[in-house]
Specification:
54% of the residues lie in helices and 0% in strands. It is built from nine helices and no strands. 15% of the residues are buried.
Length: 176
């Protein structure tokens, strides 16, 4: 947060601000320093591969260009999460391609995104898809309900009600 602005509005103690404000560093968001992305890709891939006991992947040039073209509203954490997902999901040893990326970065949607619905009524299929989308959004945001609700374009209150209705927290929170 902008502590200077909080001091001006009286929401942060002035004396504490001056105690903390010894050295100012401005770290621009990732979208303003895209040349860092290849270095971060390499670092996060090494880190995730080591953490999960998997081989470190490589990237095609097209994949790297696609990742550099993204605006990264979630900043470095968003990039790290995508790289970790790719390390875990991509185990064949081939370089990671654009199609391997998550859909929001230009990859193909997961095949199992839409449930098998032959023997379901429309309300049952809708409920199953809604449940799956909510669970996926919660996992992608480390169970941050505000960010998950934003990603799903629903209110946080509505999300909390659905999490309770589907008993997602009790069933899946330990998986997060």
């Amino acid at each position: 947060q902008d502590l200077e602005r909080l001091v001006e509005t009286g929401h942060f103690r002035r004396d504490l601000y001056f105690r903390l404000n010894v050295i100012r560093l401005r770290l621009p968001p990732l979208r303003e320093r895209k040349t860092d992305i290849p270095l971060l890709l390499d670092h996060f891939a090494s880190e995730s591969a080591s953490q999960h006991g998997l081989p470190k992947p490589t990237w095609t040039d097209a994949c790297e260009r696609r990742l550099m073209a993204h605006d990264w509203p979630g900043n470095v954490r968003e990039l790290k999460n995508e790289v970790e997902r790719l390390v875990i999901m991509h185990r064949d040893g081939d370089p990671i391609e654009v199609d391997d990326l998550s859909p929001e970065y230009g990859g193909e949607p997961d095949v199992d995104l839409v449930p098998f619905v032959d023997d379901m009524t429309l309300p049952e299929a809708t409920e199953q898809l809604e449940r799956k989308m909510i669970l996926e959004a919660l996992r992608e945001t480390d169970w941050n309900k505000t960010r998950a609700a934003e990603r799903l374009d629903i209110s946080r209150r509505h999300l909390i009600r659905k999490v309770s209705d589907y008993e997602l927290e009790a069933q899946y929170r330990d998986d997060a």
